[in-house]
């Protein structure tokens, strides 16, 4: 269960990272506060992606940690997944409405 949540988090975070980095590089928002906000969201998305990929690598390794496969860990991993999925939903809505 935890690995599926980490995979979902990684997928959503990759989409989010690509979107925010593209917006940051395209200079769409010229207002400094918006550029800072987009940069912060890009950083959080990249961090979420890195964390999820790292946890997946640990879980797939030869010394799989029992903590990463436990039910409590799966419960803890729902929060990053929910956050990444919510941001992805907002990005999808904005992209479709353009």
**Total of helices:** 3
* Global shape: elongated
The sequence of SSEs as H and E is: HHH
- How many angstroms separate the termini? 36 Å
The average pLDDT score comes to 83
**Count of discrete domains:** 1
Please compute the radius of gyration using only Cα atoms. 15 Å
Alpha-beta classification? mainly alpha
Bin the strand percentage. Answer: under 5%
User: How many runs of DSSP E, i.e. beta strands?
Assistant: 0
Quick one: biggest sheet? none
Oligomer: single chain
Low-confidence stretches: none
Helix content: over 70%
Can I get a quick summary?
By secondary structure, the protein is mostly helical.
Description:
The chain has 98 residues and is an all-alpha fold. The chain has one domain. The protein has 3 helices and no strands. The protein has helices spanning 2-26, 32-60, 71-97. Helix 1 (2-26) packs antiparallel against helix 2 and helix 1 (2-26) packs parallel to helix 3. The longest helix is centred in the middle third of the chain and has 29 residues, at 32-60. The chain is elongated.
